[in-house]
Amino acid sequence: MKDVEGKVAFITGGASGMGLGMARSFAAAGMKVMIGDIEAEVAQKAVDELKGKGFDAACVQCDVSSMESVQAAADKTIETFGKVHIVSNNAGIAVGGYSESCSMRNWNWVVDVNLWGVVYGLQAFVPHILSQDEGGHVISTASMAGMVGLRGAGPYNATKFAVVGMMETFAADHRKHNIGASVLCPGIVATNIGHSGRNRPDEYGGAVKPNEKDRTAEMLAAGLDPDIVGDLVLEAVQEDQFYIFTDPGLKHLIETRCERIIAGYDWAANCKALDGAVQAGGLPG
Ligand SMILES: NC(=O)c1ccc[n+]([C@@H]2O[C@H](COP(=O)([O-])OP(=O)(O)OC[C@H]3O[C@@H](n4cnc5c(N)ncnc54)[C@H](O)[C@@H]3O)[C@@H](O)[C@H]2O)c1
Question: Does the annotation mark 156 as catalytic?
Answer without folding.
Answer: yes
